[in-house]
Every structure is written in structure tokens, then in C-alpha cells.
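Course exercise 7: structure representation. Students receive a sequence record and must write out the corresponding structure in C-alpha cell form. The form below is the worked example handed out in class, using dolichyl-P-Man:Man5GlcNAc2-PP-dolichol alpha-1,3-mannosyltransferase (423 residues). Read each field label carefully; the graders check that inputs and outputs are placed in the correct fields and that the protein name is recorded exactly as given.

STUDENT ID: A-19
EXERCISE PROTEIN: dolichyl-P-Man:Man5GlcNAc2-PP-dolichol alpha-1,3-mannosyltransferase
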Amino acid sequence: MAPSTSKHGKRLVKTVPLKNNIDFVSLCKDIPRIIVNPEYSWIIALFLLILEVFLSTVIIYKIPYTEIDWKAYMQEVEGVINGTLDYQYLKGDTGPLVYPGGFVYVYLILYFVTQNGTNVFIAQHLFGLLYLATLYFVFRLYTRSQIVPPYALIFMCLTSYRIHSIYVLRLFNDPVAIFFLFVALNYFSDDKWYIGSILYSFAVSIKMNILLFAPGLLFIFLHSIGIKETFYCLSLCGIVQLLVGLPFLLSNPLSYISRAFDLGRVFLHQWTVNWRFVPEELFVSRSFHLCLLLLHLIVLAIFAYAWTRKFGLHSSEEKNVLAIDNFLFILFVSNFVGIVFSRSLHYQFYVWYFFTLPHLLWSTNYNPVIKLFVLGVLELCWNTYPSTVLSSSMLHVCHLVILSNLLYHGCPVPYMKSKKKPA
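STUDENT ANSWER:
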């Protein structure tokens, strides 16, 4: 694939060229070197994709499906099929519809493909394909950045019991939103900012957690394409939200906005993964929520200040080139900070940052053994059901271990290049 350029003829996200002219016979004799050299990540990624086809199929056939939200999703979209567009009347067994319009359209398609939502077996295979497609776009970013060694990708895939469960045994909407997010990130990294903006906004319309990437994305917009182009991209995002929500906005705008974009929703303490050690009275208190929000904003501001000092913003005389490692770092950190200070994390929320963890950890200066250990402990925390005081505490310890080093160590690649506009 030929490298894409911006409309000014320059790549705004700098990628590392891949080496594909490899003698596979020689590689088989040198596997230890392959699994530690990021230049060979594409080989390991291909192997893992093939392996995941078989692994996902075995999971679908051998492990029983667990009903949690699928029937409720189908009941919610069935209400739309029956002509109800007012969000206050759309609900399922687990409660009211609380996701934006993009969720409705995606699950409407799934409703018809799965025989009115009754054939879960078909849905499981579709989510298996969704997992493989997501892995492809994740691996595409990792193989281009070449910061994460291949063995970390192997560890990520082969230890991800909870992630496989979320995709093919639970059928949550979180994986769908994450898929469109990573497709958008690939387009952004190819300097296709408008298409990326449309896809990013559609991901938000499936589940709002994608907004956690927004602060980092805004910085990248301003750094790479300037205020004018940033305005166009943000306008596209707004137009997508308007079009996606239009039928529901025309029916009852207040109901749609208050239900689909409810930022003040209170979660049940019994399902929390990250705050089990906090008393329920404190967990549901508004003061606790405001403290977490304040900490979230403070840490984001610290990172934004550091990024601005290191990379600067766009000016009329320069076009800034951002190394893909730093492109991913800024986005992944933005999301990670939101997760660290989240009011509550449920088990399916693990997918919100699972695919970003290798890059975040290999952006620190910890020993590789410690990095793998942290990944392993995180997986154990997310696989402890129900959550315990110990599992929640260890989850926060792991988060703080990562966050503290990211704050101190900064971005993985000290590369920032500015080019004068041609006369």
C-alpha cells in the first residue's frame, strides 16, 4: 500500500516502514530473535490472526453462551421496528435504552441477520469475526509503530480469557464501538482525517466511552492539521451525531439526549470491578463522582501541558509531523486516564483499554518482566468474579504503576519534525 499524504502533500503521522522481504526458512531457525524484534511484528500478527480463528471457533462450540444483555438489546431495537422512536418508551428487560442511535442501527442489522434476534449462534460467529477484524486493525497500528515486541502481542492474545468471553460469549455493544474506533485510528494514521472523524463519531454513537479518546484526539488535530481543519473535522463529528440521532430527535429531542447521553448515570455497586473496597454510600455519592472528575481533569491537563511543550501546535508557517508511536501514545493515554478515574468499571469495560495496554506499558521504562507481570495481574483482576476488595485494589495498583511512569517518562519517541511550507 502506498503511503498516503495530507492535502498539502506531507504525511502528518510518521510511520515506520515494514520489512516484508523475509526468508521464512531462516526465520524458523531464529524464532527467539523474531519474537523480540518489532520489525517482525507483522509475522507474529499474521500467525495470531490465524490462531484466533481456531481459538474463537473452539470457544463458541465448547463453552456455553451466557445471556446478559443480548435479549434486552433485541427488545430495545424491536421497539424501534414497531414504530417507537421516543427514547423514553424504548426499553428491555434490563432497563431503558441508554445508548445513542448508532447502537440502534447496528443491532437492528443484527436483529434481522439473527432471525429476529433468536439465533444467538449466528451472532456469536459474527462477533468472532468482529474480534478478528478488530485485531487486524490493532495489529496494523502496532506493526507500523514498532514499539511493542512481538512476544507482548502473543501474551496479549493467549492470556485474554475475559476478552474472548466479552466478544463471543456475551455479545456486548462495547466491542462494536471499539471496532469502529480502531478503524478510525487507522484512517487518522493514514492522514485521512475526514473519514477518520466520521468513523470516530459513529463509534461514539454506539457507546459514549469512546469520548475518553477525545481530549487526545483534539490535541492531535490541533497539532497536525491546525485550527481550520480541526473545525471541519469536529463539524463532521457533529453532523454524524445529528444524522444518526435525527429520527429520535424529531420524535422527542429531550428524551433522546437525556437517555443516550446521560453522563450522570449512577451504577450499581454490586457490579463494580474497580471500587469494591469503597463503601456503597460513598460509591453512589455525588461528592465522590466530582472528586474523580476533578482528578481526571487535573491529570489530563498535566499531560496536555507536557504534550504542548514537547510537540507544540500547528502554525501557519509549519506542518507538524507526529511519529505514530506518539500518535498512539497521546490517544491511548487520554483514554487510560479516563479509565483510571472512572466512577465504575464493569467486566465488559475491559475491552475499552485492553488493546492499548501493550503500547502503554512499552511506553514506560520498566523492565520487560515487570511489564508482562502487570499485564498478567490486570488479567487476573478482570477475571475475578465477583470482584473482591483485593482484586479491586490490585487493579488500582496496576493502573497507578502505569500512570505514574507515563507521567514521569513522557512519550516513547522524542521525534517531532516541523516542515516549512514550500514557497
